[in-house]
TrEMBL record:
Tree of life domain: Bacteria
Record keywords: Signal
Record's signal peptide: 1-22
The keyword Magnesium belongs to this UniProt entry's keyword annotation: no
Family as reported in the entry's similarity comment: Belongs to the UPF0065 (bug) family.
Protein name per the record: Tripartite tricarboxylate transporter substrate binding protein
The keyword Lyase is annotated on this UniProt entry: no
Length: 324
């Protein structure tokens, strides 16, 4: 009987235990996986959030850059991590909403393997052109591209990148054919754009804005549905009438799907508190970022909508990779 009692006590203790011991979470350092190299948009957002979450959680939040295969390697690592609240992911439009449409053999399902803690910030993309491009605006450029198939060139930071998708979907919706010139990173793309060796680059606005202000390139349009405060004189693609584009690159925190609800609730509360800081608005606004303060239902609806919408658009534009 004594042995049976001990077994019963052990079973009761096991039933009360959760992987992260949510009642006193966190008890150790939290790792935040960034699926791209240091210095890019993913990395910048991750470090801004990590620095402000750490004091609220009472534990260090360490950014770990784990790039490879675009954003796939790091995202897969986070999706397959123990669901204990100590490994999180900096997710964005590209690895959460674009990859499912691009890669038929994607080793993770963002809707089944990951759960959103919350979205933090979004940027539009800005379509920029070399300074000496003869066409004065986007409608004139599209008219030229329609009359001269494949002669207009556009750069990207690699196939499947946000820059590539923004330009290729615009090309598809406008019914024209241009030539994609992929580079290994945005820096090389900018060098050739400013050198006049490529015509266009649809880059995230936080980076493009600096070059526009420096006068090294020209801004033709932004990808969001409406004009942006940092480019008040630059129309949206939709406003020009050439294509019904509405694209913003958002970033937020995600956790493995089986993470305990109490842990997710704690992380959501602390992220919401960080996003409410007035300084955060200032930090992101400097580069054209828009802080997102969404409810859990709004967050899940936005992600679901974008996964479905971009999967359909990517496939319609012929961008889906052929299965091996």
């Amino acid at each position: 009987m004594r042995r049976a009692g001990r077994v019963m006590l052990a079973l009761c203790a096991l039933a009360a235990w959760t992987p992260a011991q949510a009642s006193d979470y966190p008890r150790q350092t939290i790792k935040l996986i960034v699926p791209q190299p240091a210095g890019g948009g993913f990395d910048t957002v991750a470090r801004v959030l990590a620095d402000r979450l750490a004091p609220r959680l009472g534990q260090a939040v360490v950014v770990e850059n784990r790039q490879g295969a675009g954003t796939i390697v790091g995202t897969q690592a986070a999706a397959q991590a123990p669901p204990d609240g100590y490994t999180l992911l900096l997710g964005g439009l590209s690895n959460i909403a674009l990859n499912p449409g691009l890669y038929p053999n994607l080793p993770y399902d963002p809707r089944k393997d990951l759960v959103p803690i919350g979205l933090a910030v979004s940027w539009s993309y800005t379509l920029i052109a070399r300074k000496d491009l003869p066409q004065a605006d986007l409608p004139a450029l599209i008219a030229f591209a329609r009359a001269n198939p494949a002669q207009v060139t556009y750069a990207s930071a690699g196939r499947g990148s946000g820059q590539h998708i923004a330009a290729a979907v615009t090309e598809h919706l406008a019914g024209v054919r241009m030539t994609h010139v992929p580079y290994r990173g945005a820096q090389a793309a900018y060098q050739d754009l400013m050198g006049g060796r490529v015509d266009l680059f649809f880059d995230i606005s936080s980076t493009a804005m600096a070059q526009v202000q420096a006068g090294t390139v020209r801004a033709l349009a932004v990808s969001s549905a409406n004009r942006q405060p940092f480019h008040p004189d630059v129309p949206s693609v939709a406003e020009t009438g050439v294509a019904a584009l509405d694209m913003e690159s958002w970033f937020g925190l995600f956790a493995p799907a089986a993470t305990p609800p109490d842990v997710l609730d704690r992380l959501r509360r602390e992220l919401a508190a960080v996003l409410a800081l007035p300084e955060l608005e200032t930090v992101f606004a400097r580069t054209g970022g828009r802080v997102l303060r969404l409810s859990r239902d709004e967050t899940e609806a936005l992600i679901r909508r974008d996964v479905e919408r971009w999967t359909a658009l990517v496939q319609a534009a012929g961008l889906r990779e052929t299965p091996n």
